[in-house]
Amino acid sequence: MAIRLEPILTEGIAQVSYFICDDSSGCAAVIDPRPDADIYLQKGRKYGVSITHVFETHIHADFLSGARELVARCKGSAKLYVSVEGGASYDFEHQPIRDGDEFEFGEIKLQAKHTPGHTPEHLSYLVSSTEEEKAWGVLTGDSLFVDSIGRPDLLGDEKTEELTRALYNTMRNFFCKLGDEIIIYPCHAAGSACGPNIGDRMHSTIGYEKKHNPFMQMEDYDEFKKAIQDNAPPVPSHYPKMKKLNTQGPEIFGHTPQVRSLNVEQFEEEMNNKDTVLIDTRDMLAFGGGHIEGALNIGQRSILSVWTGWLIDTNAPILLVMPQDTNLERVVTLLWHTGHTNIRGYLGGSMRNWQESGKPIKKLPQLSVQELNQKKEQYKPLDVRKKKEWEEGNIPGATHIFLGELLDKINTLEKEETYAVYCASGYRASIAASILQKNGFKKIHSIPGSFKAWKAADLPIENKNN
Description:
3 domains; Rhodanese-like_dom; sulfur dioxygenase activity; alpha/beta; Hydroxyacylglutathione hydrolase; Oxidized Rhodanese, domain 1; Metallo-beta-lactamase, Chain A; globular
């Protein structure tokens, strides 16, 4: 017999779901699943257990819930359990959970605890042995993170004060009163925008957080409120859409969404739809060397999920260009994580078939950091990193617009200016440069290596904090 509580990290969105089972009981639970649900079924087969319970800690805003997808794939063996605290309601079949409800899986017991603040309905789950009442762990969802806390501002300004007060009470009256030995299992790791400056460890303990997490140390409410306001990262534009979609109930596919291969003529025909968004997932150097006019360069790293969420409406029809056709399942899965399933097709044979068909190709010039430094009077550096990154040091003379806000602030830039776009390493710079090029900016250059390369070359740095 073995008790298992295994985290499953979804890179890019930095989301953590959990697989819980006592293999002697033959049953298991999953907490906060992502939509590509096969990973949980594989765990079940590995341990010889059936998934019987699928839990949500709250209505998620940052990713597409996979709870309904997983329940459907369990073919009747599992039920979906969601919180109805705080007046929460849903447009899909579910089992309601309230504060104090308990569930047993062999030697494992979960007890639901209402922990509002990040959202009104938010639940955490105390984990204990059925033979002992004392908890040894807590699944904190988005309420308590390693070194951080869930943000209370995702439901709009009219709800922020109420949720901030609720989050303060959750910290003081629940988490701060738990035993130091209790292990915390949060729903997000470093990189998520669901909390400020989340630590890079996958789990922690209540005792460690009491000593090192500033939000657990603040007894004064006004200090707590100010700290949350001062440290909150920008709210990604797709969060309100994800929350609405997860409340309604995402579409169930039963498999990875299927996407057809298009030849050059079919691809061109789909491009004629004015609402279609063309995403080129090749790396920045390949994109810069030649791409289809109007394409956005969002490379197929895990972070593709987040930037597609930020920049592209979930209902928009999408066309894909990839390095190779074999990349399709990975790219489609990354898009699925943030609700982008209206994918009209991909260019079969990638850019090779396009160029061999004699179709026009657009270039995006690249500049090395040495060239930028030597000819700095010819270029206006444009920094698209986060505010904190910008304040810690930047290329002298740069203009700063965070990538997530670029479309909203694009009219503040001069179309005739010659811009050299940079970020930390070049990934976001190429996204931003492709956005500007698509919107009629003709003198755009991206900087491979970006600020990391600039620092490595020991070139001058301007520091906004000094």
